[in-house]
Amino acid sequence: MRRHIPATACGIGLVFLAAFPLVYGASDYDYIMHLWITAFFYAILASSWSLLAGYAGQFSFGHMAFMALGAYTTGLFNNYFYLTSAATGTCFEIPLGSWYFVVLDPIGVSASPYSCLDAARDAWTVDVTITKPSLWFGILFGILVGGLFGWLIGRLVLRLRAAYLALFTLGFSEILRAILSAEIGVTRGQAGLELDPLFPDGVSILGASFDATDKLPTYYVMFALLLACIALMMRLERSRFGLFVRSLREDEDAAAALGVHTVRYKLYTFVVTSMIAAAAGAVQAHYIGIITPNILIILQMALVVAMAVVGGLESIVAAAVGGVVVYFLLEFLRNDFTIGAVSIDMTIWRLVFFGAIVMLTLRFQRNGLLYAFIMWCTRAGVAQETVAKRAAAQQPPGKE
Amino acid sequence: MEHSIIFWPVVLWMIAWGVVGSVVTPRVFLRRDMDISNASLAGAFVGAASGPFGLAPLWYLAPKSTRGWVLLSAAGALAILIAAFALADPDNVCVTNGSLVASQVANGLVMGTIYALMAMGLTLIFSILRVVNFAHGEFYMVGGMSVYYVSAVWLPEMPPAAAVLVACGITFVIGGAFERLFLTPMYDGRVERPIEYAVLVTFGLVFFLQYFVQALAGASPVKAQRFFDFPIIRLPSAEDPWLIKTSKANLQLFDTVSVSNPRFTAAVISVLVLLGLLFFLYRTWWGKALRAVSQDRQAAAVAGIDPNKMNMLAFALGGMLAGLSGAVLVQAFSWVPQVGMLPALRSFVIVVLGGLGSLPGAFIGGIIVGMVEAAGTGCIPDPQRAASYIPAYGMLILTLTLLLKPTGLFGRRE
Amino acid sequence: MKILTRTAVIATGIVALAASAPALAVDCPVKLGGIAPLSAPGAVTGGEAQRMGMQIAVEAINAGGGVLGCEVELVMGDTEGLPEKGTALFEKLISQDNVAGIAGGYHSSVGIAGKEVAHDKGVPVIFASTWNDQITATKLPEVFRVAPLSSEASALYWKFAASIPGTEKVVIVTENTDYGIPAAEETEKGLESVGLASTTFAVDIGTQDFSGIVQRVNAEGPDAIIVLLTGEASFNFQQQAAENGIGPGDLPFVCDILAAESASFWENVPDGNYCFVGQFGLPEALYNDAAKAFAATYKERTGKEAVESYAIEAYDAIGLLAAAIQQAGSTDGAAIIAALEAIEYDGALGTVSFPYGQGNDTAAAGVEDKFWHQFLDPALMIFQYQEEGQKAGDAPIVFPDTYKTGDAVFVNQ
Q1: Smallest Cα–Cα separation from C152: which of C281, C2, C330, C296?
Q2: How many other C-beta atoms are found inside a 10 Å radius of the C-beta of residue A92?
Q3: How far apart are CA B280 and CA B269, in angstroms?
Q4: What's the domain range around B380?
Q5: Residues 220-259, chain B: which have Cβ within 8 Å of A?
Q6: Which of B305, B322, C158, C308 is most buried, most CB within 10 Å of its CB?
Q7: What is the value of pTM for the model shown?
Q8: For A301-352, what is each residue's pLDDT tens digit?
Q9: Does CATH number 3.30.1490.100 belong to domain C25-149+291-371?
Q10: Residue A113 sits in which domain range?
C-alpha cells in the first residue's frame, strides 16, 4: 500500500491547491494567497534547478540570473514600449500601419521624470490614443531572452567541470546584478522598476469579475505555470533525452564514448531550465509590481538551492514540494517563540536556523527529506520481492 | 571619449585577430602533434598584439615558438590598448595625472597581495580536498570580527599582533571543526557526488556563520584601530620632502605614490605570511606532506601520510588564510557581517583565473585582479560606472581566460 | 468564524456598557504595525534604532493606560530594505495581523512600493524616515510623513556649501539609489543656482574599497565635499578620504547623517574630526520634555551617546497613530485618517500637524504636492565635530543661524 502514498498525496495536494482559493475564507485570505503564489514561484525555480543540477549534474549558480533576465525583460518592455495613434516626433518610433510603436527614452530616478512621451502629450493638440502592448508579449519576450542567454552561457560553460561551472555562473549572476544596479538611467537600479499588474484592467472568470489587485487570477496563473513546467520537465525526464542527460551526469566520458552527443544535451538542458526560470521571474515580477537588482543576490540563489536540497535533488516533484515547504518554513520562522526562560527573537535567528537546517539535512539525509520519504514508499515490498525471487531461484532444481 | 574613433577600431582589430589566433592556432599545433592546452591563449595574445604579422611566423615556426614570445605578445597587446586609450581620451585623469596612476598602481599591488593571500587559502583547500569552500568570505568576516572584538572590546590592552594571532586561531579551529563534522562523509564514498555535496554544505555554512555573527554582534559597522601610526618622517629634508613624506595615516613616496597606513600594514603582514606559508609548504614535514597529497593521494598514503589528517589541516589552514586577510583589513574597512560577500566572489574569480588548485596561479591571479580593479575604478570615464562595476572587472578577464583556456592560467586537466 | 467574532464583539460591548466604561467596539489589544529594515540588504543599523524607538513608544503608551481602554501591541516586520519584501510585509500586517495603522520605514523604495498596498486597503501609514518627495507627492489619503523631504534636506546642504567662504567647486559623493541620485541632483541644481560648480560621483552601496574614487575626487581639486552615502559605505569613504589627505581635517567636508551616531562614527572614522553633519530634528539642547524622557530611556537601552533622528521619528510615528486612534474613537482606517488630518500632537519632534490634506488640498492652498500630509517643521541643521571623540550632543550647531550655538571651523582657511 505504501507505494501508492506519493501518488495519492500528489493527487490530494493538487485537488487541495486547485480548490483552495475558492474555499478558504478567513480574514487573512490575501496574505495566505500571497504566500502560496510566492511559494509556487520558488517551487518552479527549485524544480528547474533540480533538473539542471541533480539530473544533469550542472551545478549552476546562475539560475536566479535567468529569472532576473525574464523579470527585467518584461519590466523594461512594460515601461518603455507604447503604441500611439499619432507620431510623437520626440521619441524613437516605428510606424505600424495606422499605429506608432514608441520607445521611451531612459526614465532614470530623478525627482520629476519627464519622458519624451510626456513632451509629445503636451505638444499634441488632437486626441491621441496611447496604449501599451499586451504585457503577455513582454513575458513571452522575457522567456525568449532567458533562453537566448541560457544558450550563450550554456555554450560558454560547456567545457567547464563542476567547480569551475559553479564559480563562473555565480560570477555571471554578479555581473548582471552590477549592470542592473549601475545602469540606473534605464533600470532605475535600487529604486526598483515598477510593472503593471498581471491583469491591469481586472479580469472576469466564469462571470465573477476580479480587480487588478485581486490575488485569485494570479494564483491560478502561477499554479498553471508550475504544473506546466513540471509536466514539461517530467516529459523530458522520461524520454530518451532524460536517459541521455542522466548518462551525462553519471559518466560523461562513457556517455560520449557510447555516442551520446554530450554537448548538445547539456546545452539543451541549460536552455530549457533557463527559460523556465525566466518565465517564473516574468510572471512574479508582474505580480509583485516592482523589481530591484536584489532579486538576484547570492542569498536568493542560496534559498533556491536550499529548497531543492531539502526537497531532494533527484526528483523534480520533490524539489518543487521542497520549494513550497521551505518557503512556508521561512515565513513560519518569522514568529518569535519561547522555550522555557529563553525567548528567541526570530528576526535575528531565523536565517541561522535556516543555515543549520540545510547543513544538517545534507549531512544526515543527503537525498533530501522528501525524496527519502518517496523512496521509502516506492521501495515498499521491493525487499520482500527480492527475497522471494532469490528464494525461488535458490530452490534446488531437482525438487520439482 | 571624444576620440573614440581611434579607440574602438583598434579594439575591434585586436579582437578580430585575437579570435583568428585562438581558433586557428590549436589546429596548426594539432597538425604538428604539439600540446594544445595553451594554444588558444597563445594564439589570442599573439593575434591581438601583432595581427597577421605575428600569427604567420607563430604558425610557420610552430614547434620553436616559445613561452617568452607569448608573454611578450601579451605585454604588447596591453601596451597597444593603453596607447589607444591615451590617444582616444587625452583628457582622462589616468592620462593627465601621473600621480593618480602611480597611486592606483601601488594600491592595485597592495590590494592584489591581500586578495592573493585570501585566494591561496581557497586554492589550498581545493588542491587537497577537491572542494570549493563557498563560505570562504565568512572566514574572512570572522577573522576581522575576531580582531575587532579582541582588540577593542574584550582585551583593549592587547597588542594588535596578538589579536591577529587570536583571529587566526579562531578561524583555524572553525575550519577544522567544520571539516570533521560535515566533510568526512565525502571521503569514504558515502556521498555519491562529493564535489556537489561540498558545494552545498559550505553554502549552508555561509548562512549559518553570517547570521550567527549578526545575531551575536549586531549589524552596526565596526572597525579596529590602526595597528600602528606612522612615525612622522620627512626625507630628504623637512622643507622639501620629495623622497618620503608621512603623516599618521598616510605615506607618500616621491611626491606621487600615496599609500594609506592600514593598507600598508596589511600588505606588509600579508607578504610576511606569504613567505611563512612558502616556508611551511616547502621546508616542513607537514607542508611537504600536504603537497604530496595534492599531487597524488594514493602515493602519499602509501608513503605513510594520513590523507584524512591532511584534509583537516588543509581546510583549517585555508580558512585561516581567509581569516587572516580579514584580520589585517579590519583596520582599513568598516566591518559588518555581510562584508565577506564581495571578497569571496573575488577569490573565486582569482582562483579560477589562476587555475583551481594552483598556488602560484592564485598569487598571479590576485595581482592581476588587483591591478584590473584599480585600472577600472581609476580610468573609466564615467565615474558612476567606474565604481559600480568593480565586481565585473575581474569577471571580464575571467570570462576571456576561460574561453581561451578552460582550466585557468595555471590549471591542470583532471 | 466571522459571525463568532462579531458575537464576541457584541458581547464585549454589552459587558462594557454594563460596566459603564467607554462603549467602544474595539478589539483588544489595538495592534500597530512597525516596519523597519532588520536584515541585509537593508540598512540594519537604522532599522534597529527605529525598532527600539517604536518599542519605547508602545511601552510609554501602555504605561499611560493604552488607547481606548486597550493595550497597544506592536507587530514588527522586517522590510529587508527590498520593495518587493516591503509590499509583502504591508500585505501581511494589514490582512493577517489586522493592524490599525503602520509606522516606520527607512528605505524610500520600500515606502514608494508599500504605500500602494496601504492605499489599496485604506490603512493609514506614517513614514518615519523615507525622504523621497514622491511618497507624499502622489497625494494618497492614507500616507503621512514625519521625516523631512529629500528636497528640503538637499537645500540645507547646498545652502550650507554656499555659505562656506572661498568655495568654488564642490564634489558630491552619492549612492546610486533612489535616495542618492535625486538628492545629488537637487543639491547640484541648488549649487548651480548660486553659481558653484559641482561634480557628482555615484557609487554602488556595497562598495568597500574607495581608493580609486578618492583619488579621482582628489584629482577634481574640490573646495568642499558633500557625502550622501548611507550605511557603512559612508564610513568607509570618509575614513579613506581622510587617510588620503582630502578628509574632514583637510577641507570642508559634509559627512553623512549616520555620523550623528557619534560612538559608531569615531570608531569607524577615527580621522573624522571637523566633519559637518546634517541633523534632522532638534538638537539635544532644545529638546522638549517628551524628547528628553524618550532620549533617557533610549540611551539607557542601547548604550548609545545620542539619539538618531530616525529613532525619534519612529517614536513619534507610533505616538501619532495611538493619539489619532484615541481621538477617532475607533480603529477604522478612514476615522484615523480624519483624526490625523486634524491632529495637533505634542511629541518628541515638537508639535506635529499635517496642514495639507483632504480638507485643505495642496493645489487649493497653492503649495507643491510634496507637502501633502507632510510634517512641515522638521528642524534641519548642521553641526560640526570640533574635538576628537566628541559626542554629537556636545558638538556646536553651526548652520543655519536660527539654531546656531557655535562658529564653524573651516580647516582650509
Answers
A1: C281
A2: 12
A3: 16
A4: 98-230+251-404
A5: none
A6: B322
A7: 0.83
A8: 888 888 888 888 778 888 888 889 888 887 777 666 666 666 666 667 777 8
A9: no
A10: 86-128
